[in-house]
């Protein structure tokens, strides 16, 4: 199979979908790899390293899309890429369709096969291709939140861990999944007082067992959220419903109950955000303020640490990508149920129920394509 790796062109996105080591694995298995010129430079991988691994460097994004049977990316295609995508072409990347209708309709129109990293789901409900970036984003949420709590950047002027004789910051985390857990480890390690809100008692029991004493758990509901936000210094949105739009746990009217200079970091922004006033921002212009509350809603947070993120992501995606290249998407998805769950759009049909529901689009069960073609 011909594997194409275009350069990411989303604002300040420096990750790349394949490392030179990954390219070598494809070549060893009899596939051809085509990488757009300078695609890996933002992550520290030069074109020469890909060529040494056996890949071919192409001069433009147009040539890269035109060549590939499977296109591997990190972020969803943006508008300038829509017309480059061909019918029956396999796209393997993060899509987050439920957060952006124009992208969904463009991919339906393209009649490509869209296999989304974020909905690849194992029988135990784990999300193996989302976990690495969730780990990065959860840790970064605390780094960024601690930074923006500084007064010159718009925060309250609070040191996250405090010092002897002063109280540490209070950190409220909405969601106890991978993002929330990693954020709690980072915030607690810096000495903050942390509360994790979640709806799963088994998950909260687990967190209570493994977290240090400065991390507490509470049931997530509107009553508890409203009681906690007036004293929270940093609030991290870490809610995920796979493939669907995130619910708004922090509503616009709640901002008036927060102390000016409170910092909100919404990691769920890729799925529409769990904070109603969230809107996607970029690393170039990462924050904005509403009602005196600072919002940090960068939609590709791990892109700020591309070397770490690229290695973590490709460690997870490469085994699946090799199987897709070896067997083709249909046979690979039959053999691996988790890949089947990653199929969102096939040849103009939405085959992921949550995406179809979000935009009132016709839904075709994925089994139609796996069993009848």
TrEMBL record:
Gene3D superfamilies reported for this sequence: NAD(P)-binding Rossmann-like Domain
Catalytic activity: L-alanine + NAD(+) + H2O = pyruvate + NH4(+) + NADH + H(+)
KW Transmembrane (keyword) present: no
Enzyme class: oxidoreductase
Residues of the Alanine dehydrogenase/pyridine nucleotide transhydrogenase N-terminal domain: 4-137
The protein, known as: Alanine dehydrogenase
Organism: Cyclobacterium plantarum
Species lineage: Bacteria, Pseudomonadati, Bacteroidota, Cytophagia, Cytophagales
PROSITE patterns tied to this protein: ALADH_PNT_2 (PS00837)
Keyword Oxidoreductase in record: yes
Keywords: NAD, Oxidoreductase
Superkingdom: Bacteria
EC number: 1.4.1.1
């Amino acid at each position: 199979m011909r594997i194409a790796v275009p350069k990411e062109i989303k604002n300040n996105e420096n990750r790349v979908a394949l490392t030179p080591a990954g390219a070598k694995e494809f070549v060893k298995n009899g596939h051809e790899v085509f990488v757009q010129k300078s695609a890996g430079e933002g992550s520290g991988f030069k074109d020469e390293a890909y060529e040494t691994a056996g890949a071919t460097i192409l001069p433009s994004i147009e040539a890269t899309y035109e060549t590939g049977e499977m296109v591997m990316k990190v972020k969803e295609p943006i508008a300038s890429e829509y017309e480059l995508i061909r019918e029956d072409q396999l796209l393997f990347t993060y899509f987050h369709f439920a957060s952006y209708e124009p992208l969904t309709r463009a991919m339906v129109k393209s009649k490509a096969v869209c296999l989304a990293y974020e909905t690849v789901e194992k029988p135990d409900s784990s999300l193996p291709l989302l976990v690495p970036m969730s780990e990065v984003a959860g840790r970064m949420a605390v780094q960024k939140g601690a930074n923006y709590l500084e007064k010159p950047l718009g925060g309250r002027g609070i040191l996250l861990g405090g010092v002897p004789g002063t109280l540490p910051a209070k950190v409220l985390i909405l969601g106890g999944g991978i993002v929330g857990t990693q954020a709690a480890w980072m915030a607690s390690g810096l000495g903050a007082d942390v509360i994790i809100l979640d709806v799963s008692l088994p998950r909260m029991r687990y967190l209570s067992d493994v977290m240090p004493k400065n991390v507490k758990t509470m049931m997530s509901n509107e009553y508890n959220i409203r009681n906690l936000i007036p004293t929270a210094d940093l609030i991290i949105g870490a809610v995920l419903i796979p493939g669907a739009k995130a619910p708004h746990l922090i509503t616009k009217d709640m901002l008036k109950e927060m102390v000016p200079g409170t910092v909100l970091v919404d990691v769920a922004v890729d799925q529409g955000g769990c904070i109603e006033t969230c809107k996607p921002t970029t690393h170039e212009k990462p924050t904005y303020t509403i009602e005196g509350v600072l919002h940090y809603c960068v939609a590709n947070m791990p892109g700020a640490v591309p070397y770490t993120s690229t290695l973590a992501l490709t460690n997870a995606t490469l085994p699946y990508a090799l199987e897709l290249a070896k067997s083709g998407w249909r046979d690979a998805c039959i053999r691996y149920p988790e890949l089947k769950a990653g199929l969102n759009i096939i040849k103009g049909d939405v085959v992921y129920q949550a995406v179809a529901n979000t935009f009132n689009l016709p839904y075709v069960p994925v089994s139609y394509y796996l069993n009848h073609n």
